[in-house]
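Weekly modeling sync, notes
Attendees: S.R. (lead), two postdocs, one rotation student

Agenda item 3: backlog of single-chain predictions. S.R. asked that every request posted to the team notebook include the full sequence so nobody has to chase files. The rotation student volunteered to paste the first one in as an example of the format we agreed on. Action items at the bottom.

Example entry:
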Amino acid sequence: MSAQPEHAPAPPPAPAPAEAAQLLARIRTDRRAERWVPAFERDWGKALEDSRHSYSLTPLHDVVRTWQARLAAAPAVDAFLTAGRDDSGGIALEDALGGRP
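Predicted structure, as returned to the notebook:
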């Protein structure tokens, strides 16, 4: 008897083809653009290289999903910090979202 499930969960849907460009445009309009644009471009470049070696678009999709989550969470993070709450017990986004399989 196997301890593995018989059916693996369906992967999340792939981002739209133009999603990365739209995401970068949104990042460029954010007040954190000075730091975030180079970080996105670094992540995207590494994902492109990984995709070339693996013949998979998964690394690119992961970058888009991660940055979508960052942008979606930014207002809540701003509100948290503006409220003067202690953020010393935070965790890395990668730990919260989980690693790639």
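Discussion: group reviewed the output briefly. The chain has a mean pLDDT of 86.
Action items: rotation student to repeat for the remaining queue; S.R. to check formatting next week.
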